Amino acid sequence: MTALTQMTVTELKQYLSEHRSDDDKFSAALQELLKREPNPVIYSKDMPLEEQEQIFMEKIAQH
């Protein structure tokens, strides 16, 4: 297994993109990425789809 803890954030994002169909690898990389965020934003699982879409579009525009 790739040493996820040694990857940069950019490398982790690339890894996530490349392994999005592999549940185990994707989950492990996402968990590592989320561990690195000191102040994560928690969203409600019941958030309307339109609100989710708006948040995604804002996040994409930031990068």
> Could you give the count of β-strands?
0
Shape: globular
Proportion of residues in helical segments = 55-70%
CA radius of gyration is 13 Å
Oligomer: single chain
Structure description:
- With 63 residues, this protein is mostly helical.
- It has three helices and no strands.
- The termini are far apart.
- The protein is globular and about 35 Å long.
- Helix 1 (9-18) runs antiparallel to helix 2.
- It has helices spanning 9-18, 23-35, 49-62.
- The longest helix has 14 residues, at 49-62.
- It has one domain (4-62).
Q: What does the secondary structure layout of this molecule look like, with pairings?
A:
Layout: H1 9-18, H2 23-35, H3 49-62
List keywords for this structure.
63 residues, mainly alpha, 0% strand
What would you say about this model in short?
This protein has helices at residues 9-18, 23-35, 49-62.
